[in-house]
Specification:
CATH topology: 2-enoyl-CoA Hydratase, Chain A, domain 1
CATH class: Alpha Beta
Distance between the termini: 49 Å
Number of helices: 13
Order of helices and strands: EEHEEHHEEHEEHHEHEHHHHHH
Structural class: alpha/beta
Strand order of the largest sheet: 1-2-3-5-7-10
CATH superfamily: 2-enoyl-CoA Hydratase, Chain A, domain 1
């Protein structure tokens, strides 16, 4: 691919696009990374030479930390009427769910909040035991997962477990995430790369039409996703406008949120936001 991306490194080999997220220091899902993911999604969806897309990270501690809280703070305090079309983030992640390509997350390190929601929008998720961590910490900040999490998680792990994940705001290690269905498989770190590589190249060796039609047929079992995403966006906007959310997001940033040190022990910080 000829396009240049600020926070991504890409190589295409035998029908597989290997996309490495490299956006120091913590792969924060800020505007720059969102634009990169948006543009690479459009480009790969249209690339007839690509059948499988694998996302991984150059940072061993962070896949994608979470969405940029400072961006969320800038959202309007007044709630607008419910939208009739998907917003930027929802459209960006929904593209991977609906495109006629297979998307895979090779997860080492943390994927929280919007990072987890991006991973949930991919077709398959594989994580490294002892390294991969998933979490939806939004409620601790006074908001809700507004990037597709409330719609994806119940379908993937079930309603009860989705409520536990969203309301508990705890880190889920790979072993537990696999047990819940959040990950397809959790593998020892030394086995993760070879397994994902073998699977990606195996799928890419099959007819493109068969891959696309099989995925489209399986997607019909999840209808109607767009309507749920629009409702999620409306409820998210309501949560962002609350005084509690404004106070907790500010306190989160004041106490080290979005720094490497703070994010490595995010669970402890979230517990102390009420202090």
């Amino acid at each position: 691919m000829s396009a240049r991306y600020e926070g991504l490194r890409i190589r295409v080999d035998r029908g597989v696009a290997w996309v490495t997220i490299d956006h120091p220091p913590i792969n924060l899902f800020d505007r720059a990374l969102m634009l990169d993911i948006h543009h690479v999604g459009k480009a790969l969806a249209a690339d007839e030479g690509v059948r499988v897309i694998v996302f991984d990270s150059a940072n061993p501690d962070f896949f994608i930390a979470h969405a940029d809280v400072e961006l969320i703070q800038k959202m309007p305090a007044e709630v607008e009427p419910k939208a009739a079309t998907l917003g930027f983030f929802h459209a960006m992640v929904e593209r991977f769910r609906t495109m006629p390509k297979v998307s895979i997350a090779k997860l080492e390190g943390r994927a929280r909040g919007g990072g987890s929601e991006f991973v949930l929008s991919l077709d398959m998720r594989f994580g490294a035991l002892g390294r991969a961590i998933l979490s939806q910490p939004e409620v601790a900040l006074g908001i809700l997962p507004g990037g597709s999490g409330t719609q994806r998680l119940p379908r993937i792990v079930g309603r009860g477990r989705a409520l536990e994940i969203v309301l508990g705001c705890e880190d889920f290690p790979a072993e537990l995430a696999e047990r819940y269905g959040w990950l397809n498989r959790a593998l020892p770190p030394a086995e993760l790369g070879p397994f994902v590589e073998r699977l990606a190249y195996r799928i890419a060796s099959f007819p493109a039409e068969a891959i696309a039609l099989a995925k489209a047929s399986i997607n019909t079992a999840e209808l109607p996703t767009p309507e749920g995403l629009l409702e999620e966006a409306h409820l998210f906007n309501q949560s962002v406008a609350t005084p509690a959310a404004r106070k907790r997001m500010a306190r989160f940033l004041e106490r080290g949120g979005q720094t490497r040190e703070g994010e490595l022990d995010l669970g402890t910080m979230l517990e102390r936001l009420a202090d």
